[in-house]
Amino acid sequence: MAAGPGATTDTGPGAGAGEEERERVKPFTPEKAKEIIMSLQQPAVFCNMVFDWPAQHWTANHLSEVLHGKQIRFRIGLKSTDTVPQFETTCSYVEATLEEFLTWNCDQPSISGPFRDYDPSKFWAYADYKYFVNLFEDKTDIFQDVMWSDFGFPGRNGRESTLWIGSVGAHTPCHLDSYGCNLVFQVQGRKRWHLFSPEDTPFLYPTRIPYEESSVFSKVNVVNPDLKRFPQFQKARRHMVTLNPGQVLFVPRHWWHYVESIDPVTVSINSWIELEEDHQARVEEAITRTLVCALKTAEDPHNTRAWLNPTEVEETSHEVNCRYLNGAVSAFFDHFRTSRVIEMQALKTNGEYVKKKELNVHNHGEVGQTGSQNITRGTGKQEAASPFGPDLVPVIPSPEEAPSERGGIFESDGKDFVGKDGEHFGKLHCTQRQQRMSRSEHAAVGQIASCGAAAPSQTLISTDDLLDCLVNPQVTRIVAQLLIQGRNLWF
Ligand SMILES: O=C(O)CCC(=O)C(=O)O
Known about the structure:
Helix content: 25-40%
Oligomer: single chain
Strand content: 15-25%
Bound molecules: 2-oxoglutaric acid
Order of helices and strands: HHEHEEHEHEEEEEEEEEEHHHEEHHH
Distance between the termini: 70 Å
């Protein structure tokens, strides 16, 4: 076999691949792919990296055989497009098998079965965000069909992955993930991704209602925006890419995304990769949970469903939330005490952030790109520089977007947002969804949290400590400005 970068020396599940596939060479070694993932700060599409993954054969038809008779929850939404995002709280839900989904989704749908109330010409269905571990339970061998080790993450497979199966029009409203970065393998059909940089956060009108751990939603329906209500959205720069089967999209940390299925059946698999920054994000998430639950249950103790995303089982008590917060803070200190990456300290100065970005920009300027024939970007003909050759295609801003003045909601002088140590408080409302806390992480934090509860003297953060920070004059000033800014929209 021709040895070269990333040559596949298959001994694992890919060993069943044909002669031709065994001869094919991957464009990046796992080490190189990981290096790219850990340094790249813009979305990009990896090509020719998964041709030997058994999971490339996971069509919805194939999966319906594997998951024979398994009841799966489908989210149902309307195909018509309103200016209001279709949040999960406003969708309907149906329990059905994949077989029933495929029968409903075919050319001559039956009028019986669990989908009978939903005309497929008007509605879409989405088995979204399904953890393999829940879906395949006793069929754990299947985890090996997904081989994130090719991207430099040894041992990572289906166990750390989620599956998404949808009909045309199925979509996920625009949000950012608080944790990690994301690798998304498109298996069947095509999905169109609308991406926005973290810098555009103020233009996306972030909201934590509906509340879900690790997701910050945008109030804007980015495919049909209400510009009267959300005028700043015009300043956001859309990066659009159509992901084809066999490609893997890299979504960097905190990039906003709206994702829509544009083929009759789509299947994709993703894995959120943990990052150093998640330690602080976990503390931020715990603060958010405490605040949202406290205020929403005070407002109306009986009306949880309206504000709580269906992915959250129930609202958590103040006691539990404080335990989460203490668990996250302890884990943060434990990690940074024991790790050597002290320079990754949580409260990075804005200066450091800019430096990292500049470095990245220089990288991109170095080499011209040839692009991969199979990438369909939003509007066609743009070619951007990529240091990585034809098999890594950067997702660049869509040219139809008006050039934006780069200013935030508060464009005056920005002084109000700089804390005493040079921290940029403007980032306070900018830094939240991605990888939801994995089950094992939940367990770890929960464990630390429950230790704290057993020994109150070890509790790091009391309710008063939290309140002191939340009602710090610098914070309340920002809150006041945000509230006033929000009201202005209506005058
Ligand atoms: O594919 C989708 O609909 C959404 C995927 C997503 O939000 C993610 O992978 O973070």
